[in-house]
Backbone:
């Protein structure tokens, strides 16, 4: 087995590499559901969103790979709960992508572990991740890490 993947917080020099990885992630999901078809300007909008995650307190991005050229990433965001609930909020791992060349060496697991440490440090007790039902590899990955069913999101296209 390869050496454990080195994980670090993303920096602004990683943004263009992160945009390229995000596009790969969207290309992977596009055949699974039309929701993932990108509109013109999507990369620019995601670039702005990334910059906010890198500079804000309500989210973080973790990467594996050289600065400016990450090969994998995991983004996480904090989500406040409505004030009528006892749980103050949750975290959501919004994106996880590992380049094919880095898969099956613990890189994805290391990224998720880094995100979970960050989440725990903020006192959050619950983390969600959304996985497309048709994404068999994604489903298997998350379930192997101990994630389980919580809410079924049903949809109907009109």
Residues:
């Amino acid at each position: 087995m390869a050496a454990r993947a080195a994980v670090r917080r993303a920096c602004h020099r990683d943004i263009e590499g992160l945009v390229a990885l995000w596009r790969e992630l969207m290309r992977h999901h596009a055949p699974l559901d039309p929701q993932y078809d990108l509109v013109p300007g999507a990369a620019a909008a995601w670039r702005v969103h990334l910059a906010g995650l890198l500079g804000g307190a309500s989210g973080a991005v973790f990467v594996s790979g050289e600065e400016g050229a990450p090969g994998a990433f995991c983004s996480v965001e904090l989500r406040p709960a409505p004030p009528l609930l006892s749980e103050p909020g949750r975290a959501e791992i919004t994106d996880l992508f590992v380049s094919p060349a880095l898969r099956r060496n613990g890189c994805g697991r290391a990224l998720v572990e880094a995100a979970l440490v960050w989440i725990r440090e903020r006192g959050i007790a619950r983390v969600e991740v959304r996985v497309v039902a048709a994404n068999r590899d994604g489903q298997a990955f998350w379930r192997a890490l101990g994630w389980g069913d919580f809410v079924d999101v049903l949809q109907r296209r009109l």
The chain has one domain: 8-144. The chain has four helices and five strands.
